[in-house]
Structure formats: structure tokens, C-alpha cells
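Q: I have four molecules that I believe assemble together. Could you output C-alpha cells for the complex as a whole instead of separate predictions?
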Amino acid sequence: MLHSSSQAAEPIAPSVESGFAGTVRLPSPRPVCATGIENLVRALPLQRRRLRAKQYLFRAGQRRQSLFLIHAGFFKTCVLSEDGREKITGFRLRGDLLGLDSLDIAHYACDAVALDVSEVRELPYQQLRDSLPDFQDRLTAVLASEIRRDWGWMLAIGTLSAEQRVVAFLLDLAARLDGLGFSPQRLMLRMTRADLGNFLALQLETVTRALSHLQAQGLIDVARREIRLVDPAGLRALLDTSRTLH
Amino acid sequence: MLHSSSQAAEPIAPSVESGFAGTVRLPSPRPVCATGIENLVRALPLQRRRLRAKQYLFRAGQRRQSLFLIHAGFFKTCVLSEDGREKITGFRLRGDLLGLDSLDIAHYACDAVALDVSEVRELPYQQLRDSLPDFQDRLTAVLASEIRRDWGWMLAIGTLSAEQRVVAFLLDLAARLDGLGFSPQRLMLRMTRADLGNFLALQLETVTRALSHLQAQGLIDVARREIRLVDPAGLRALLDTSRTLH
DNA sequence: CGCCAAGTTGAGACCTTTCAAACGCTGTGG
DNA sequence: CCACAGCGTTTGAAAGGTCTCAACTTGGCG
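A: Yes, here they are, computed for all four components at once.
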């Protein structure tokens, strides 16, 4: 049995269901799609795969077979160095692609771990590239935007204080959830404080302290993994004020 | 592989005049090429463009027309936020592509600034994509490896101390220069301490102190922008010892 | 020849880390 | 059903690594 959030019969949420990336807002009436890939492959009969929280979709070093399109759930991807240092490179949700970064090599370059009950669709790369004229263009676009996203976080990590980084993360996640049709006010964090700290280049205690301090300021409401953005404008203001680092 | 032993007499610069990315070792007898793009477009009559140090090849926000392949010289690319924070996303040399990150959008997403006398070849994207069958595959590969490279630096910045980051940078640059046929022992830094600090998420004083300390340990020799790696193995050891962050 | 940008070095402050302890959930087993 | 174990979270206090501010040096260039 999976121990993630409780579900009775249906363990997986199609696009909505109990514990998901956020509290559901609406049954996503429009094509939710960040990458455009979702639309492209909508009609195709794709292999599906379901995962429970903490399950690995693939690990760095494994032979790469396919790409995966997240259909539901929440993933983290992480790289690690020979001497054991680990770094979470991102948190991925519906519409994101997994495995893209190793498109040109034979083995996956990162781990992909489900942080919640999740479902992915397997995309046979070669096959799609040859049959769908737009496919490769789309991939190129996704790759480029992934680079820009990474740069954005490098900028944040390099120029923002601990509290500001946490705020940036919350606002970013809220925006992404919003784009998927979930509530941008109530965030259900799927990762531990340690994961968050790892991603933001902070210690887990520092993350906790930042969250506590933001709550003390009345900007957010923290209840363990569940976070409510009480004053989004106030949060954004914290970021704008950034003139000097740290 | 590239022969790294023999060293000709001439101290400086092959194809273009004065200072180059490193001291020249050999006139690059074989196709030096990191990306494979160089070979692909070798025979093509490409528009060339030369820049002096501090000249911008393009700026973020400008309409994107082409990609550029660096043929000689040294560039930095940097992103900046609305509120003025700036972050250098990488240092680029021969064989690297500039503008790739904005392939899917109409405007450049970063600045590209020459840090030395440089020369680039303009690649008309649409045209090459339609005429060279391998072109897009190559671009995809370059994009993917750029992502992996960024992740590597995110890992370094998140898990290494100031001194270790500087060491990682020096070793990385040395390896890249080696691959281009330059001496991996004598590095001519083209960027300021401030640039370096920006890239490594450190203050310029911290970079200076790290370099001084490495010199005091007898691992490197610092003479302003010119750095000699006295004990590369020792430097690598500094990185391996990393078990805890900071 | 003097100005100016870039680099070096010092000293103190500050933020984040480190180490420790306590608390709260959640699943397990008696 | 409840006690217990284990993991994740919170909070405190102290240590430490970088940052900040400031002065001084060096080399390049008009």
C-alpha cells in the first residue's frame, strides 16, 4: 500500500483527486500544458506508468530508453557527484518532461523520483521524432526554456538571501500550480525541508526558520507541508526590495 | 585524443591577434570541437564578426536573428532580473554556441559579451535546419549538455566552499582549454575577480582570498590574471575531500 | 605623469551553518 | 486500542565562513 495521502479505491488522480500538487481549484477545463508537448501527443496511445511516492522513475546511469511526460503528480530530479554530493535540480509537475537532459547520451544523467502518487506517459523519442513533424522543434523549445529556468534559479541562489530564496520558491510554485488549474494560494509541499534546502542551497533548518519568520510577519501560514500564501503582494515586495545580496 | 605534451615555442595567440583564452600550445592541427557543430558547418560560407574586449555581441531583449559559433576568443553570458540583479551564466570559448538558449523565443534571453578579442560565425538557424539534416539533432545535443553543465555548477555552488568553488572553476577551465589545444597549466583569466565571483556566487574579495590561499599552499601561482596550476593533483584532492558542505 | 580600474589585504559584523534537543505526526506491533 | 519507534519539523545557542567596508597597491592608458 502506498502511504501517501489517503485515497480509497483509486490511488491515482487523473488530473484531480485528493492530495495533489495543490488543492484543486477547477477540473482543468482548458488544455493545461506548459510545454505544448501534451497537446501534441494527446491522441497517441502511450504507455502509462504509475508510481508511488519515493519511487524512482529512473536513476542516473541507467540506460536511457524514453522520455516521460508527467501526467499527474510531483517529481524531483537530482544529480550527484562521484563523491556523493547531491543536488536537486528541480521539482517537476504535470506537463513537464523527464529525461530530456540526457537526450543526446545513452544513460540518464539524473535521478527522477516521485514525491507523490504520480503518473507518467512514456514517449518513444525516435519514433515520435520521425512521425511528428513538430516534435523535435518542441523538444528544442523545452530544452531552451529549461536552461532559462535553471539560469533563473542560479540568479536567485547567487543574489538572494535565504528568506528571499524561500519566497521566490513559494511564488514560483504557486504560479506553476496556478497554470495547472490548482489554487495558487494553498500550496501542498510534496518535498521535505531538506529537499527544499538542497534545491535552494540552504540547510533545512534555515528553510524552517525562513518559513517561521514569514509566518511571524503574517505573510504566509505554515502547517507542516501545507502552506497558505496570506499576502502574495507582500511576498513579492520582499523580492523587489532586493538590492544587495544577503 | 589531443596531445597535451609537446609545447611549441610561441607563447600567445594563433588565429587572432593578441591575448587569447590561454597560452597557445599548438596550432590546432585537428578539428578542435566540443560540440560537433564546428565540423558540420566547416565548409559553409558563414558571415564572420569580430569583436574587441567588452563589446556586446547581443543583449537580452534584442530581437534574435541568429546563433553564433565562437571561432576564437572568450565570452561571458549573463542574465539579469528586472530589479537589476545580474548573474553570469557561463564563460564561453571556441566551439561554444551563443544564443542557443533563446532558440524558441523572439528575443535573446541573455547578454553575450566578449572578454577578449574574439571572432564568431553567424549561423542562420532556419536555413541550416532545413538544409543540414543533422543540424537540429546537434543543437538538441548541445542544449542538453548545456543543461547538464549548468546542473554541475548548481551542484558546485550548493555544496562546495568558496575555495573549493574556485578550484573547481580553475580545473574546469583548464580542462576546456586543454580540449582546445591550449596549455592546461597556464591559464589566462579573461574575466575580472568580480565576474568570477558573480559566476561562483561569491564576493570578489572572497575570490581573491581563495586564490591567495591556494597560492600560499603552493597549489597555484597567481600573477593577476595569469594563473599557473602548480599542483593539479593537489587541487583535485581539495575537491574530493568534500564530504560536508562549507 | 597622474588618473582610474582592478586587485589585494585587514578587521569586524552578520548571516548561515552546525550541533543539540524537543516536538508532532504516522505507521507498526503488542 | 494504545505504546513505541522513526522520520520530519521546529527551535535554541554557539561557531564559523563570507560579506561588508575601508585602505592600500598595482598596472594600464590618456
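A: One point stands out. Residues 1-31, 242-246 of chain B have pLDDT under 50 and may be disordered.
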